[in-house]
Specification:
The protein contains nine helices and 14 strands. The protein has helices at 15-26, 76-88, 115-118, 130-146, 163-178, 210-223, 257-265, 284-287, 320-335, and strands at 5-10, 31-38, 46-49, 52-55, 57-58, 69-72, 92-95, 124-126, 148-157, 229-236, 242-251, 270-272, 293-300, 309-317. 31% of the residues lie in helices and 25% in strands. The strands form three sheets. Strands 5-2-1-6-7-8 form a six-stranded parallel β-sheet, with helices on both faces. Strands 10-9-11-14-13-12 form a six-stranded mixed β-sheet. Strands 3-4 form a two-stranded antiparallel sheet. Bound molecules: adenosine-2'-5'-diphosphate (A2P). Adenosine-2'-5'-diphosphate is lined by residues 11-15, 17, 38-39, 41-42, 59, 74-75, 78, 163-165.
């Protein structure tokens, strides 16, 4: 284990943090030591890693001494507050929050797309927004082949995007409604049980939400495609942990569904799931717990007179490719 790293997971008790630990373990990431960090509320709590009980410590500015790579999943304000101490300690920060994603000094990386950008870091590497990562891993190989001119996405996002408290809220509200009681809204914008709502993150001046604009801006940055035209509507649905997206793509050149299928069948991080006759298509229930993003329902866009349009549907685990897995894959680039 000559290249083994000293790792810290910041936000280890959260929905993404727990998946980060599990992903490090499952992928056999070379670890010399691991530190689990969270707020003072969780200090002293014990979590299992590789069968061993590890005590959660309170995150402080001194936490990064003797750490090579810190995986951050504790929200944007925690990332902003502790980034200087982390970088000063010589520890590389892989940040799951949106705090630094659009900073021009911070690479925003999906290892299947732009691994080379990771090596330009100055201490911080950003992990993309979950919906963006799930979409981009499927769209990029098609873009590389036929160049995407315009992309219109509608998302169907799981509760996990709001962290462990949002997942609990979906369960609690559903149980309350089934008991004939009123659903109590605590951390979500609206009732999520037996409902959907087109409101994720805050509204911007242009009428889009911040979540929708992440899809626009982050995709362009990751793909180095500032000219790509993108529009998105983000919707929260009562699913626990995998996001789905309906995608309409316009290409510079003609592309048939068969061509798209043969490109996606070979694409890293993608599993083609496209046999509607046999009821095979992407669904969040099948994407849950999987590293690959499922892609299917690929068809020619019939609203056009040419063959430059495709429609497709994708589902990907928000906590894995949308967060923890992508972060661990970035850390793996640094080990290689
Ligand atoms: P804690 O459990 O101690 O509150 P989720 O996204 O599932 O809500 O998880 C958020 C994660 O970020 C949790 O591990 C949480 O720890 C951690 N966290 C939140 N605020 C802070 C903070 N100020 N300092 C350190 N960790 C924090």
């Amino acid at each position: 284990m000559g290249n083994a790293k000293r790792i810290a997971v910041v936000g280890a008790t959260g929905a993404v943090g727990i998946e980060m630990m599990e992903t490090l373990e499952k992928r056999n990431f070379p670890i010399a030591s691991i530190k689990l960090l969270a707020s003072s509320r969780s200090a002293g709590k014990k979590l299992k890693f590789k069968g061993e009980e590890i005590t959660v410590e309170e995150l402080t500015e001194a936490s990064f001494k003797d750490v090579d790579i810190a995986l951050f999943a504790a929200g944007g304000s925690t990332s902003e507050k502790f980034a200087p101490a982390c970088v000063k300690a010589g520890c590389v920060m892989i940040d799951n929050s949106s705090a630094f994603r659009m900073d021009e000094n911070v690479p925003l990386v999906i290892p299947e797309i732009n691994p080379e950008d990771a090596f330009k870091h100055k201490g911080i590497i950003a992990n993309p927004n979950c919906t963006t990562a799930i979409m981009a891993v499927v769209v990029y190989p098609l873009h590389k082949a036929k160049k995407v001119r315009r992309l219109v996405a509608s998302t169907y996002q799981a509760a996990s995007g709001g962290g462990a408290p949002a997942m609990q809220e979906l369960l609690d509200q559903t149980a309350a409604v089934l008991r004939g009681e009123k659903a109590e809204v605590k951390v979500m914008a609206q009732q999520i049980a037996f409902n959907i709502f087109p409101h994720i993150d805050v509204f911007q001046e242009n009428g889009y939400t911040k979540e929708e604009m992440k899809m626009v801006n982050e995709t362009r940055k990751i793909m180095h495609a500032p000219e790509m035209k993108i529009s998105c509507t983000s919707v929260r649905i009562p699913v626990l942990r995998a996001h789905s997206e309906s995608l309409n793509l316009e290409f510079e050149e003609e592309i048939t569904p068969e061509e798209a299928r043969s490109i996606l069948a070979k694409a890293p991080g993608v599993r083609l799931c496209d046999d509607p006759e046999n009821k095979i298509y992407p669904m969040p229930i099948d994407a849950t717990g999987k590293y690959d993003v499922l892609a299917g329902r690929i068809r020619q866009d019939i609203s056009r007179d040419d063959k430059k349009g495709l429609d497709l549907f994708v589902s990907g685990d928000q906590l894995l490719k949308g967060a923890a897995l992508n972060a661990v894959q970035i850390a793996e680039l640094l080990v290689k």
